[in-house]
Design goal:
Strand content: 25-35%
Largest sheet: 3 strands, mixed
Structural class: alpha+beta
Order of helices and strands: EEEHEEH
Number of strands: 5
Distance between the termini: 36 Å
Radius of gyration: 17 Å
């Protein structure tokens, strides 16, 4: 198993308040003869309320688009966004390359 941690900045202040972000990437080794995983029915729910302005919504969109890129064509995807109302950005569909590209474009427009 491997663990890689990446901070959003090289240096962190030792005094005062600041928000920092850390990406943790954990990879488990494959076993010999490991079975394929079951198909996913994957729904992304994205907060686009006023508290998500600036870098927060950019990071949320980037993470969502990255997650879509990890899906296989036998999976299903849906995208929902909310603020003061809930919007189905993309209803559930097979995760074909075209559907993933469409979902990524729609997320990019949030």
């Amino acid at each position: 198993m491997s663990l890689t941690l990446t901070a959003d900045r090289r240096l962190i202040r030792d005094a005062g308040k600041s928000a920092r972000y850390l990406v943790a990437n954990i990879e488990a080794p494959l076993r010999n003869g490991e079975r394929r995983r079951l198909p996913l029915n994957f729904a992304l729910v994205i907060d686009r309320s006023g508290s998500m302005t600036g870098a927060k919504i950019l990071h949320a969109r980037d993470a969502a688009i990255y997650a879509l890129g990890q899906l296989q064509q036998r999976d299903r995807i849906a995208v929902v966004a909310y603020a003061d109302a809930v919007e189905v950005v993309m209803p559930s569909a097979p995760a074909t390359r075209a559907a993933v590209a469409d979902a990524s474009r729609r997320i990019g427009n949030l």
